[in-house]
Amino acid sequence: MISLPSTAHFFSSSMDDFQAQAMMDRYNGVFTPLEISAADFKAAYDTPDIGPHIEKDYKGLSYLSWPFAFRYLKEHFPTLYVAFEEKTLGWPVFGEPGAFILRPYLTDGIRRTPALVFPVMDRKHNSIQQLDGRAISDNIQRASVKAIATFTGLGLRLYAGEDIPKEEAPKPALQQDTPKPARAAKKAATATAGGTSDSAPDSAPEPAPEPFDAKAALTAVCKANPLNYADEKASMAAGKAALESIGLARATEVKTWQAFGNVIAAMMTLWAKQEQIVISKAEMTEEINAVRGLETTEAMIEGMKAFVAKKQ
């Protein structure tokens, strides 16, 4: 009588063989490639619908939340989904403390893309030293969004520092806070003399405007604390965070009033996020542009105070 292996043993053995073969294929780069045409990729990259769903993290970096990433994936590429390579059956995390990684890829169940390397991070973008279920779950969603963006183009421009939709053309540089005494005196004299000026002939060159001092302007804003932080120190920290959110390390890197307006806009955006203010993107943009378009530090401070008063 021939003895046959039990059904459980057969499937267990087959699964072990499958995993071993899958592991070997992965190391050898053996898989049927999933291809997305250049036209489909460009159409997904340029999709205008993503804009309203773009959010900002605590650093002011733009991102697309995972529910919307999956929504647009199914709208543009309904047969595709994100899967993860597994270190062991059912366990998608590779690496060690401080260097844990996930390896997401896109597939239709038969063909697939290469796998990305996605570091497991906390909400401040720091590598995680100790895993727990929540950390794995959160990072799987983030890794899925990046895999979707990388291989289809959906939201990919966010990773290139671009925003969706494209911002309006930048406003012209704002006037300096400090009035120009010589020019003001000349105008006053001209008005008094009925169109002529004895003290300064029209041909006389006007003095160069005083240089813009971003450090002094930002210090003045933070000391005024228009966003009602707990104290001046917290307000200063908010100013520093705003600089970092637009890629600057210090205020001296801000060279124009227009650029300073961007710092003020970042401060307002970060404050609204921290306070969990419910406001539409269109309304927030309108509020920011109203303050960013003001012509003096004092006016900006008052504009920020008015914004806070309306939202608290």
Can you walk through the features of this model?
With 312 residues, the protein is mainly α. The protein folds into 2 domains: 22-160, 2-Layer Sandwich (Enolase-like, domain 1), CATH 3.30.390; 212-311, no CATH class. 46% of the residues lie in helices and 6% in strands. It has 10 helices and 6 strands, in the order H-H-E-E-H-E-E-E-E-H-H-H-H-H-H-H. The strands form 3 sheets. A two-stranded antiparallel ribbon has the order 1-2. A two-stranded antiparallel ribbon has the order 3-5. A hairpin with a 5-residue loop joins strand 1 and strand 2. The chain starts with 6 loop residues before the first helix and ends with a helix. Residues 162-186, 188-193 and 195-201 have low confidence and may be disordered.
Strands of the widest sheet, in order across it, are 1-2
**Ends apart, CA distance between termini:** 84 Å
Structural class: mainly alpha
Uncertain runs are 162-186, 188-193, 195-201
Here the CATH topology of the largest domain equals Enolase-like, domain 1
> Could you state the order of secondary-structure elements as H and E?
HHEEHEEEEHHHHHHH
The CATH architecture of the largest domain can be named as 2-Layer Sandwich
What is the CATH class of the largest domain? Alpha Beta
Compute the number of structural domains.
2
- Percent helix: 40-55%
